[in-house]
Design goal:
The chain is mainly α and about 260 residues long. About 75% of the residues lie in helices and about 5% in strands. The N and C termini lie far apart (about 60 Å).
Length: about 260
């Protein structure tokens, strides 16, 4: 059944047309590489002027939905998950700069994503995956010991990087490409929030706790128990969230 395209109101005209063009693409089952109706046809279809049509097309071009080819027309673009996630990441980066509680919200998102990812890793990891997961953990442990011997900022940053690499490899073990891309896409946010941990006086103790929690995650994945792996990851991220909340409260007291 074809969509019934109605004339749109003047308020936020181009945004409404963006939605209607998306609906048109879905209703007409236009595939990547297929051409959209001409600008004149779109004007007649949506009963608006050329300017809002052009603005909507430019927006969808930026979002990676359409491909504007000068002199040839406008075409449906092949979906690019990385492109969509990049836009999401840039928006989140901006939010992080504006609002402290966004760090906690990031951990909320990680809870949803990574608890399920760990469960899938326990189910889908191959023997080679498990060997590499063990190696990734040993790399983290090595860097942890280097940090204990020399608790410099450089070693602390190395520890943060190794920590994220462990989480990233758990995602790889899940063999779910979308989850892996989504977790990788928030790397900048994770690093930015993790760097705030550098001001904690008990960071060395915290790092040791996290090592133990990562080991629990690894052992759970190796056991093949999805439930156990999910719980281990949830427990770890709950702890991380408690630490981040403590840090934010502490900084607010200093600011006040």
């Amino acid at each position: 059944m074809k969509a019934d395209f109605q004339p749109v109101a003047r308020r936020r005209l181009s945004d409404d047309i963006v939605d209607q063009i998306k609906t048109m693409i879905l209703e007409r089952d236009l595939r990547p590489g297929e051409r959209l109706p001409s600008e004149r046809d779109l004007v007649d279809m949506f009963r608006v002027g050329r300017t809002p049509i052009r603005e909507a097309i430019r927006t969808l071009d930026i979002l990676g939905v359409l491909d504007v080819r000068a002199g040839h027309g406008v075409f449906v673009k092949e979906p690019d998950v990385n492109s969509y996630l990049k836009n999401m990441q840039e928006s989140l980066n901006f939010l992080v700069e504006l609002e402290k509680k966004t760090f906690i919200e990031i951990l909320d998102v990680r809870q949803v994503l990574e608890s399920h990812t760990a469960a899938l890793a326990a189910k889908n990891a191959t023997k080679d995956d498990l060997s590499l997961l063990e190696k990734t953990f040993q790399d983290l442990l090595y860097i942890q010991r280097a940090y204990e011997k020399a608790p410099t900022e450089a070693n602390a940053r190395n520890w943060i990087e190794a920590d994220f690499n462990f989480h990233k490899f758990v995602a790889q073990c899940s063999h779910n490409g979308v989850l892996e891309v989504m977790i990788t896409s928030i790397k900048t946010l994770v690093h930015r929030s993790s760097r705030k941990l550098l001001s904690l006086p008990d960071l060395l103790e915290l790092a040791q706790d996290f090592i133990n929690e990562h080991k629990q995650v690894m052992e759970a994945v190796k056991s093949g128990s999805s439930e156990r792996a999910s719980q281990a990851m949830t427990d770890h991220l709950n702890h991380a969230q408690e630490v981040m909340s403590r840090l934010i409260v502490s900084r607010e007291r200093i600011d006040n």
